Amino acid sequence: MTSHRYALRAPQDTPGSWKTYLGLAAIMAFSAFPVYWMFVIATSTDEAVTQMPPSVIPGNQLLVNLNEVFTLQDVYFTASLINSFITALTITVATLFFCSLAGFAFAKLRFRGRNALMVVVILTLTVPNQLGVVALYIVMGKLQWNGTLLAVIAPGLVSAFGVFYMRQFIAHAVPDELVESARIDGALTMRVYWNIVLPAIRPALAVLGLLTFVMAWNDFQWPLITLNGTEFPTSMVALSDLASGNYVIYRRVLAGAFVATVPLIVLLLIGGRQLVRGIMEGAVKS
């Protein structure tokens, strides 16, 4: 009788065993420990950092360490956080717009060469970003953008993964009949995109937006190359400046890393449920 009652339940309503919860708790603790350890070092003194065995209890030097991070010359940590926010937000908004628009075109519009262009987009995913760094630096130099945030923002305005992901989601989430009925009513292509497609793909937009923001915030290689030696670093470049030198003060580095991690933690806490929902809906639709 009990097994019959559980068989009628949805999978998400079936209670897990204690082993399941124990395993999930262990995985969560293992995943969160690096962040906790970073916080412990960020609140410690130099002596506490090097003591053996290491202390796992936070200290009381967080404000002191943060004050040193934000007041260090040639690091520009406050400006780097602002620059990272501007860069990540701009790239995220642009990626959501351009990728959803391109995904709508590939999924619902009929034009010559559509499949061939989609194959080209997918093939670009196999090319490592490092191969295009030299050419990208030369192009940014000709545009006189090297050393500015434009050089960081422009290459990330659209992504091949975003186009492919949105194309796949729109193809299943938006029925062709709905698009055709809107056209019969006189709606133009952009009206169909804005009033029909966008409301239907909100979960996918949330997933792509979160992933894009995190990747843009954590981007290090290209900002390091194009912003090297300027007063406009991003947070990852500023952290590399904190870790440079003959003697690395780890409490400063990890205090800065903790501050740079807090926005991502807050973002994932706020949008985590939407992220899971978008992934699950995409899996069900596919």
From TrEMBL:
Subcellular location: Cell membrane
UniProt keyword Transmembrane present: yes
Domain ABC transmembrane type-1 residue range list: 81-271
InterPro entries recorded: MetI-like (IPR000515), MetI-like_sf (IPR035906)
Stretches that traverse the bilayer: 21-42, 75-104, 116-139, 145-165, 192-217, 249-270
One Pfam family in the UniProt entry: BPD_transp_1
Keywords for the protein's UniProt record, in alphabetical order: Cell membrane, Membrane, Transmembrane, Transmembrane helix, Transport
Membrane disposition: Multi-pass membrane protein
CDD domains in alphabetical order: TM_PBP2
Keyword match Lipid metabolism: no
Family designation: Belongs to the binding-protein-dependent transport system permease family.
The protein, known as: Sugar ABC transporter permease
Species, as recorded: Paractinoplanes deccanensis
Lineage: Bacteria, Bacillati, Actinomycetota, Actinomycetes, Micromonosporales
